[in-house]
Design a protein that fits this description.
Elements: E1 5-10, H1 16-27, E2 30-32, H2 42-47, H3 49-72, E3 82-84, H4 90-98, H5 101-114, E4 123-128, H6 131-141, H7 151-168, E5 172-176, H8 186-196, E6 204-208
Parallel strand pairs: 1-3, 1-4, 2-3, 4-5, 5-6
């Protein structure tokens, strides 16, 4: 393993947490999972985005910063690898979609103060899935406040992620998960494990899972 810090990212319902759990178990890695359920503004946001977007995004940024700061700089004598199921920069990406211009500019100023204090992943694993598959996964996991997420919102997030990855030339492994079954198909997980054994240069690299 060439990496000490890997982040799994993707749109809502792409399967980030499932894959992060499997990889952490495989590598005996320290696991950082987003604690989204602790955000009291999340159900309110889906009911009234205009009113609750700003407190939602501020809460997420504060909690992600606190969690990353504590876990990434704490000692862990039993693990040489850390895997997270979110990128701290997702704060800015979601804020860009959810906030009006003036609020976003204020939010970005706060983000720019905080972000340099955190470590960046050595490899970003981005799970790409078509929106209809995302909606299927969202329905399956059955979180009540997610059930009315419009497809247009998922398309906007997808586009924002894609633009960010291209613009910043991140070292990114992009996996097509449109037919992925990491829990039920051992070949799918093995394909990811084999891909993670490679050392990648900066830029985008692509993995298609076997049928």
């Amino acid at each position: 393993m060439h990496y000490r810090f890997i982040t799994i990212e993707g749109n809502i319902g792409a399967g980030k947490t499932t894959l992060a759990h499997l990889l952490a178990r495989q590598y005996n890695a320290r696991l950082i999972l987003e604690e989204f359920a602790d955000n009291p503004f999340l159900p309110k946001f889906y009911e009234n985005p205009g009113q609750y977007a700003f407190p939602l995004e501020l809460f997420f940024m504060a909690e992600r910063y606190k969690q990353m700061k504590e876990l990434l700089y704490g000692r862990d004598l039993f693990s040489n690898l850390t895997i997270s199921d979110y990128l701290f920069t997702k704060c800015l990406l979601f804020a860009k979609v959810n906030l009006p211009d003036e609020e976003f500019r204020l939010y970005q100023k706060l983000f720019d103060i905080i972000q340099p204090q955190l470590a960046t992943p050595e490899l970003l694993v981005y799970l790409h899935s078509p929106v209809n598959r995302l909606q299927e996964n969202i329905k399956k996991r059955n979180r009540s406040y997610e059930q009315r997420i419009p497809s247009e919102y998922l398309y906007k997030l997808q586009e924002t992620y894609t633009q960010y990855i291209k613009q910043h030339n991140l070292k990114t492994l992009i996996i097509d998960v449109s037919k992925a079954d990491f829990l039920g198909n051992e070949r799918h997980l093995k394909a990811v494990l084999d891909a993670l054994e490679k050392e990648y240069p900066d830029g985008q690299h692509y993995l298609s899972l076997p049928d």
